[in-house]
Amino acid sequence: MRQGKKLAVTALTGLSLLTAAGVAGAAPTAEGAAERGGLERFHRQHLSWQPCGDEKLDAAGAECADVAVPLDYREPRGRTITVAISRLKASDGAKRRGVMLSNPGGPGGAGLDMMLTVRDAMTPEVRARYDLIGMDPRGIGRSTPVDCGWPVGSMLQSAGVDRASFERGARTQADLAQRCRDKAGDLLPHITTRNTARDMDVIRGALKERRISYFGVSYGTYLGAVYTQMFPQRSDRVVLDSATDPDRWTRPARQLLGKANETALDDWAAWAADRDAEYHLGGTAARVRALVEDLVRSAAREPIRLGEHRLDQHYLPLVLFGPLSDARQDALLTSYVRQIADAAGGKVVQPSPELDATLRFAYRPTPETQNSGQAAVMCGDAAEPRDPESYWRDIERHRATQPVFGAFAHNITPCAFWAPPVERPTEVRNSVPALIVQATGDTRTTYETGVALHRSMTKSRLVTLKDVRIHGVFEFFPNKCVRDSVNTYLADGTLPARDRTCHVD
């Protein structure tokens, strides 16, 4: 999940089942089509580069193009769709090494402009060596987007405080899945991580490159890992920041969010308690936490009015979830809780612009902000349990230790009502060199998942940022040790001799 200007409320990570020699399950059909020459016309296509029509990209001198790819790689002569990419050219053509593709996470994150901020963390030497390629993955943004016409912005909701609220939520999730079948049923089977990895290789061919480098954040680490498994000989320098465990996608990845965010909530509560004279949320961490838990119960009794919005028990944890990913946003989270507490106490509250934007995403989505593309990827990648009772049992097991986020992390999603995936997920087990960056306090892709990916990619190195709550380290958290490690690798291909631990500057 990427944070920053993209509304820090989309979440998550990835999964897979490939061997080093080839593809398991149904995958050989798609890869076999390429071997028989079915993809040659896509690799040989001419790209028409144009201004991006985006203020920041155009100001940076970027150019954009649409890449034609098969909707179904098993039928490469069938229907095509387009994938939108951007390019920031290497600053020194004489030093240029190649291209670096990227993904900002989500899944469901649009990435055309991602490399604008990543580039800021790169040294001049690195910027001289790569054409930086942003991409809206298939089904997202400008790339034949999935728009299920959802009445809410995200499928990631809390089950609420009791069985009745869980059942209402389950009906909502079933409705979201049905809306996707009705509006985008022809696209859904093909909006998967494996197909996005295949798109990346078509982009490589269309750019006339032998190999590609890659920078991925959050779910983007899963996509990058899958690409290295499917196309190991096409992978150059790979950086995977805030990584997910490919063996825990999709529901297991969400379940890890419960404990991680309860821990972060405790950390934030202590911060807010130290500033009780300013925010008046409670003089101890226990009192601050108790206030938050009371707000969840209050929202269950009656949604809390904030301007034109009514914040209910299903989305209140999501509002908290966003700022918790970065300790530098503790003041922002505290302002959210102060506004919600005032409104719950009967005051008329007009939410701040930041809180209003989050509430609009949840309750008043536009075709551009509703995140049904996230469901398409997650539900298309891996099957999830279809029995609602299994979710309810998990929620109840975790209520005592995860009173705020347990019903969020273990809740049912539209994936329980989705058609089965057309391919098996990818097992990542390879020796492609890569640099993995992970913060020990990450609330979205927990530290243990970065360690697991490190084990799965045997020639990778792990750079640990210790005792920092942050998601998306290189791009968002200025740390000399981390940035030196990444920039050195991208500049000359030198991985650290051994795993490295970094501390706050």
What does this 3D model show about the protein?
This protein has 505 residues and is α/β, with parallel strands linked by helices. It has a domain at 39-145 and 190-250 and 426-502: Rossmann fold. Helix content is 41%, strand content 12%. It is built from 20 helices and eleven strands. It has helices spanning 27-35, 40-43, 55-59, 114-120, 124-129, 163-184, 193-206, 219-230, 251-273, 276-279, 285-301, 316-321, 330-344, 353-363, 372-381, 388-398, 406-409, 447-456, 473-476, 480-492; strands at 63-70, 80-88, 98-103, 130-135, 212-217, 235-241, 304-306, 309-311, 434-439, 460-465, 500-502. Strands 1-2-4-3-5-6-9-10-11 form a nine-stranded mixed sheet, with helices on both faces. The chain has a two-stranded antiparallel ribbon with strand order 7-8. Helix 7 (193-206) crosses helix 8, helix 9 (251-273) crosses helix 11 (285-301) and helix 11 packs across helix 13. It is globular, with a radius of gyration of 22 Å. The two termini are 25 Å apart. Mean pLDDT is 93; it is low at 1-29. Residues 403-502 form the Peptidase S33 tripeptidyl aminopeptidase-like C-terminal domain. It comes from Saccharothrix australiensis. Belongs to the peptidase S33 family.
Q: What Rg is obtained from the alpha carbons, in whole angstroms? A: 22 Å
Global geometry: globular
Spans of at least 5 consecutive residues with low confidence: 1-29
Mean pLDDT: 93
The H-level CATH homologous superfamily of the domain at 39-145 and 190-250 and 426-502, spelled out, is: Alpha/Beta hydrolase fold, catalytic domain
| Share of β-strand residues | 5-15%
CATH fold label of the domain at 39-145 and 190-250 and 426-502: Rossmann fold
The CATH architecture assignment of the domain at 39-145 and 190-250 and 426-502 turns out to be: 3-Layer(aba) Sandwich
The structure class reads alpha/beta
Distance between the termini: 25 Å
Strand order of the largest sheet: 1-2-4-3-5-6-9-10-11
Give the oligomeric state of the chains in this entry, treating copies of one chain as homo and distinct chains as hetero: single chain
Under CATH at level 1, the class of the domain at 39-145 and 190-250 and 426-502 stands as Alpha Beta
Largest sheet: 9 strands, mixed
